[in-house]
Design a protein that fits this description.
Blueprint: E1 9-13, H1 18-30, E2 34-38, H2 49-54, E3 62-64, E4 70-72, H3 74-82, H4 92-121, H5 132-149, H6 162-171, H7 185-197
Parallel strand pairs: 1-2
Antiparallel strand pairs: 1-3, 3-4
Helix pairs in contact: 1-3, 1-6, 4-5, 4-6, 5-7, 6-7
Length: 210
């Protein structure tokens, strides 16, 4: 059984943010000793002088070690926490492939699926008023995932890795952004597998109107 000696640390985040939740899920999955500090980004809590002293970028999630050192950016935090665990493949190529998906998630997935969800759910925007590229490029991203998952259960090395945790965070709630996961059955099945592996409740897969 994997066990890592790591001092207790703090995770600052907002539980409506998939980028924050994936760090919390990973820490819990690994049994790490953490203190979660809720930062309400909608009320400006990430822009206070106190928080900006920790992260001048004013963004969450943020990991703070007991020695005062801090680490930002969700996928960097995931990699730090999971070092040496089964969530990071030992094979150099598989590890690099996992990193490929982590970069892809932030560049080609989150900017469309997460942003469209945020606009509809938190900013009361009408779907008809949104940039149509958010829907088309989000669906394209889901299509890329579908092709990857047609013949495999997980993204890399036939095991749960950080790639799955990073990608499931916003994919499992994509219906809140108007993306119908029924059009991507392999993705749907994968979401359920990852939710089960992380002991998460099923987020639901009934899409809103696009």
């Amino acid at each position: 059984m994997w066990e890592r000696q790591m001092d207790a640390f703090r995770l600052y985040g907002h539980k409506e943010s998939g980028n924050c939740l994936k760090t919390l899920w990973t820490a819990r999955h690994l049994g790490l000793d953490i203190e979660w500090i809720e930062i309400d980004i909608f009320k400006g809590a990430s822009r206070t002088d106190e928080f900006l002293a920790l992260n001048p970028a004013g963004q969450v999630p943020l990991l703070e070690r007991s020695d005062g050192r801090t680490l930002a950016q969700s996928n960097a935090i995931l990699t730090y926490m999971a070092e040496g665990s089964d969530l990071i493949p030992q094979d150099p190529f598989d590890r690099a492939k996992m990193m490929e998906w982590l970069f892809w998630e932030q560049y080609s997935h989150e900017p469309y699926i997460a942003v469209r969800r945020s606009q509809l759910r938190f900013h009361a925007r009408r779907a008809s008023d949104l940039d149509p590229d958010l829907l088309s490029k989000g669906r394209r991203a889901l299509g890329v995932m579908e092709m990857r998952l047609l013949a495999r259960e997980y993204f890399v090395a036939e095991q749960l890795t950080l790639a799955d945790i990073a990608l499931v965070a916003y994919t499992r709630v994509a219906h809140e952004g108007g993306f119908d996961l029924a059009d991507f059955p392999a993705v749907q099945g994968w979401v359920r597998r990852v939710e089960s592996a992380l002991s998460l409740p099923h987020a639901g897969d009934h899409a809103m109107a696009g």
